[in-house]
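Ticket #4471: structure output looks truncated?

Reporter: J.K.
Steps to reproduce: submitted the chain below (227 residues) through the standard prediction queue, then opened the result file.
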Amino acid sequence: MDSESGPKPSASTSQNSTSDSSSAFERWRNWASEMTGVGLTTGVPSTSRQARDIARCEKNKQWLIDNSPVVTFMLQHLALSGCRVPARNLICGPCNQTRAGGYDPERGAIILCASNFYSRRHMERTMAHELVHMYDDCKFNVDWSNLRHQACSEIRANSLSGDCRYASELARGVFGVAGQHQECVRRRAIGSLAANPLCPNEETARKVVNEVFESCFKDTRPFDEVY
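Returned output as attached by the reporter:
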């Protein structure tokens, strides 16, 4: 959370003119909108907040490239598979508030939604998730218009990235224990597939995910086991 404090409306009422009070309130409202995103007319944070968020995202991105075991491991195995990923292909940028990141196969790039990370660990999981998609594309030439292909990659990405660790599920308010990891992977893969415009409905997404689940869940490449 930013530690800076923004301008406040004046405490004096008798000595300030109405226009001065209005001006102070506008400054305060603008500052509040910058900090929270509330009251802005666009679907993404304002320009000045974006700049701060992108700078923080870039700093954390480089730290994770240098220090995160899972990010380093995935980048190494992408390079070994003939798909070296330069840091510039991990792009910090503005997004709407519904996602943390995404893989763009046309550009061979990962989009990191700079304003939507609540911690460095959240960003680490997002990078790992999208790097699994990139690895699958590199290694297996995924056809992203094929729902079975996408379902398999979503199953692997959710399983291998840390998205479905017990602590991650607790943070989402999911408290199941027995079979928690597999159920999380299945649920999140269905949600991702259902969001694909080529998927007609959630029932189709569930059917496709269930059809490929066992074989794709067992495939932990390039890891020896679930990270």
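Triage note (M.O.): checked the attachment and the full token line is present. The chain has two domains: 47-120, 142-226.
Status: closed, working as intended.
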